[in-house]
């Protein structure tokens, strides 16, 4: 998906954000994309009675093949991530982690090599505690050794959970493990559960430190396979956006948790909503679904290139809820291209009503904060309809299905008043479109 345009914008953003530093590993300049086992397959270790669905070498090699053969890798999904329940219950005599000998008979290095042979990247799970959430060995007392083990296995992504740990210790523990990962000399994306455990414990997270040491982090509940769970996450991110949004950017992302599209709990409309809102949130796109049995319409959502492009926008500005009234919400995210002081935007209209009929929402572009006098080229990213160039005075009307979404892309058009290459300005979208919220 890389192009000269994306490279240009990445360089531009890094210059623009030169005084903001994330984890010093050069990774995750856009939100990570891939496949993660946990939500769909949990801690199923019964390979005797359920060999097709247990946490095993076989499962991850199968998903690796599907990611490549069925087009997921081609649109940007690149990580194959093992979650909890992969090791033996005890470390070996030298204190090293050991993959379950029956479920991973060839070892983790072999699995990692297989993933890499397909052009993908390999991720693994551990916990900053005495045990993982499912009771397997944690990293406490083994930080350097486990980091070295992961490097020896050519791991590309490490998720560090926080069960069986004291939240007050995390301000030291998560940075300490991150430093050990860096000291191995191997670049590994570092996913932290640090803030969510502290929030539950009534501790105010130190996001300055979290941004410095982690590539992404969890703020809220684990996602479950239900619309109620997705709604609760959407509400959390909207209600706490003033604290959450400023922390996101290239190399460091808020993580609202996995995509559950294609499982059992979401309707088609609700699935479209999760994908659109996750893109507005600049969220990591980590699918947790059985890719062997996913229905074509859900696969099409997950492979929607235009919405993925919004999620992967190189500016890395997380979107916000700018309107909320009587079950209708509008979410907006600044994206490239920039024309002078005018950002382009992705705008999502969300219908939270359940009264059984689509809702009409009518608004001018100017009322959305889109003020570029040269106008915006407007496109519906699900319906694949190009509405042409519209002026800020144009009133648009969208029809949004119950629990559904309409997501539009509004590309700012060039004007003779502005240079083709954007210059750095003092303009901030946080002081323009993002101050329109109606409770």
CATH class of the largest domain: Alpha Beta
Helix content: 25-40%
Q: What name does the CATH topology of the largest domain carry?
A: TIM Barrel
Rough outline: globular
Total strand count, please?
Answer: 16
Proportion in β-strands:
15-25%
* Lateral strand order in the biggest sheet: 7-6-5-4-3-2-1-8
Fourth-level CATH superfamily of the largest domain: Aldolase class I
Q: Any idea how many domains?
A: 2
What is the number of helical segments per DSSP (H or I, 4+ residues)? 13
List its traits.
single chain, about 450 residues, TIM Barrel, Immunoglobulin-like, 2 domains, eight-stranded parallel β-sheet, six-stranded antiparallel β-sheet, 13 helices, disordered N terminus, disordered C terminus
Detailed description of the structure:
The protein starts with a helix and ends in a 27-residue tail after the last strand. It folds into two domains: 33-312, TIM Barrel; 320-412, Immunoglobulin-like. A hairpin with a 2-residue loop joins strand 10 and strand 11. Helix content is 28%, strand content 21%. Residues 1-22 and 417-439 have low confidence and may be disordered. The chain is built from 13 helices and 16 strands. It has 439 residues and is of the alpha/beta class. The strands form three sheets. Strands 7-6-5-4-3-2-1-8 form an eight-stranded parallel beta sheet. A six-stranded antiparallel beta sheet has the order 9-10-11-16-13-14, covered by helices on one side. A two-stranded antiparallel ribbon has the order 12-15. InterPro entries: Aldolase_TIM, GH, Glyco_hydro_27, Glyco_hydro_27/36_CS, Glyco_hydro_b, Melibiase/NAGA_C. Residues 1-22 form the signal peptide. GO terms for molecular function: alpha-galactosidase activity. Its EC number is 3.2.1.-.
């Amino acid at each position: 998906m890389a192009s000269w345009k994306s490279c240009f914008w990445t360089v531009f953003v890094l210059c623009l954000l030169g005084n903001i530093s994330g984890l010093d590993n050069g990774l995750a300049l856009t939100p990570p994309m891939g496949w993660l086992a946990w939500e769909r397959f949990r801690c199923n270790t019964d390979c005797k009675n359920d060999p097709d669905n247990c946490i095993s070498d076989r499962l991850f090699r199968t998903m690796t093949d599907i990611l490549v053969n069925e087009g997921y890798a081609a649109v940007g999904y690149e990580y194959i991530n093992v979650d909890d329940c992969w090791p033996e219950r005890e470390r070996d005599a030298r204190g090293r982690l050991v993959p379950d000998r029956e479920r991973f008979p060839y070892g983790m290095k072999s699995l990692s090599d297989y993933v890499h042979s397909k052009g993908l990247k390999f991720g693994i799970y551990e916990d900053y505690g005495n045990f993982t959430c499912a009771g397997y060995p944690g990293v406490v007392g083994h930080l350097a050794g486990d980091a070295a083990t992961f490097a020896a296995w050519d791991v590309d992504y490490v998720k560090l959970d926080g069960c069986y740990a004291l939240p007050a210790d995390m301000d030291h523990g998560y940075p300490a493990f991150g430093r050990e990962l860096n000291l191995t000399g191997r670049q590994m994306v570092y996913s932290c559960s640090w803030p969510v455990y502290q929030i539950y414990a009534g501790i105010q997270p130190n996001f300055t430190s979290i941004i410095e040491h982690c590539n992404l982090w969890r703020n809220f509940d684990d996602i479950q396979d239900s619309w109620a769970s997705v709604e609760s996450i959407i509400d959390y991110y909207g209600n706490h956006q003033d604290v959450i949004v400023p922390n996101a950017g290239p190399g460091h992302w808020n993580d609202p948790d996995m995509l559950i599209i294609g499982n059992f709990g979401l309707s088609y409309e609700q699935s479209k909503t999760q994908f659109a809102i996750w893109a507005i949130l600049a969220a990591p796109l980590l699918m947790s679904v059985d890719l062997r049995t996913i229905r074509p319409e859900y696969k099409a959502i997950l492979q929607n290139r235009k919405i993925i492009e919004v999620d992967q926008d190189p500016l890395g500005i997380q979107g916000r809820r700018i309107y909320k009234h009587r079950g209708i919400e509008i979410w907006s995210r600044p994206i490239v291209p920039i024309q002078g002081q005018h950002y382009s935007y992705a705008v999502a209209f969300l219908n939270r009503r359940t009264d059984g009929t689509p809702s009409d929402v009518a608004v001018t572009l100017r009322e959305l904060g889109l003020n570029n006098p040269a106008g915006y080229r407007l496109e519906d990213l699900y319906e694949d309809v190009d509405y042409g160039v519209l002026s800020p005075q144009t009133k648009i009307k969208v029809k949004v299905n119950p629990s559904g979404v309409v997501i539009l892309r509004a590309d700012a058009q060039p004007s003779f008043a502005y240079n083709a290459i954007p210059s750095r300005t003092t303009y901030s979208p946080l002081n323009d479109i993002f101050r329109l919220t109606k409770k």
